[in-house]
Structure formats: structure tokens, C-alpha cells
Amino acid sequence: MAADDPANGRALRPRGQRTRQRLLEAGAAVFAERGYHTARVDDVVRAASTSHGTFYLYFANKEELFRALADEVATAMTALADEFPDLAGPGADDRLRAWITRFAELTDRSGAVLRVWADPVAAEAESGPVGAGPTATVTDRIAARIATVAPDLDAHVAAIAVLAMIERTVSLTTGPDPAAPDRAVVVDTLARTVRFGVLGG
Prior knowledge:
The chain is mostly helical. It contains nine helices and no strands. About 25% of the residues are buried.
């Protein structure tokens, strides 16, 4: 193992941090293009313009690389859930639009990881229940916010519905199709639909 190998519990030097980040970015691109199952370490190494030896200084295998990506996404998702806005009062639509925009940007960057989370067979067989903990945390935090403005709803189910609707809608309206709606229209429609669904109008 190299002296700055994270497996030894030592902090990476700046150059090592940059190399690891390059591998993570290459891995995200490869997983998005080829899917988790068919992606290979060879593909990641090629995309990162580095060697197999360098890859194995930072990650034991493809699964460990994916888990590192999943940890990054989990951290970002949890932070975003903490900032889920108040759905009532003046400016609520603007706050929700801003939040959904950030959620959509995270989905754009991390779609490959989120797709594996959503695939119970892949998540369980290949990487263990990668998304179970982060998904539960995000759902619980959004549910807590919903419960404050809609006590008559099952807040947990409502949070699942809100997250599923936003993620799926962003996914279905993103891509090269020239007929795809403008992102601003998607975000505005989602914000109004979420508020209507939670508050009843």
C-alpha cells in the first residue's frame, strides 16, 4: 500500500486527493454510460487516463468505487433534505422552486448512483443495501417538515410520494429530446403540484 493510501487511515496529499477525485468522476461517467453491471475497472481507468496500478491504490474494486460515490451522494442528499423548505406562507413557491432546482441538479450529476439505489436487485446483490440508510434519512427529514404543515397526512408516505414524483419527473424530462419541456417549466410545475398535494390547494 502507498503511504497516502486511504486504506491505511492516512490523509491523502493534495495530489492524491486530485487523483482520487478524477477516478470518482470517471467512475460516475462510466456508470452513467454503461450501467453498474457492465461497467469495468478497465473502463474507469481509460476514462480517467490513468493506470490500473493507480486505481488499486485508491479502490479495491468497482464496488468500492461505487460505494465511495454513493457516500458522496448520500451526504449531499442528506444536506439537501435538511433544507427542505416550509411549504406554507409567503414565498413558499419560490423556496420550493429553488429546492427542486438543486434536487434536479444533484440528480443530473448522480443519476447512475440513484438508479442503483432504486434497483433492489442491483443494490442488494452487487453492493449491499447501499441506498437504504440514506433514503430513510432523507425521507424522515422531509416527513418531519411536511408534518408541521399537514398534520392530517401520513407524513412519511407523503414524503415518499414527493421524492418519487420529483425524481421521476426530472428523469423523464431530461435528455436530448428537442420536445422535452424547459427545466424551468418542469421545476415550476413540480413546485405547484407538491404544494397542492400537501396543502390541498
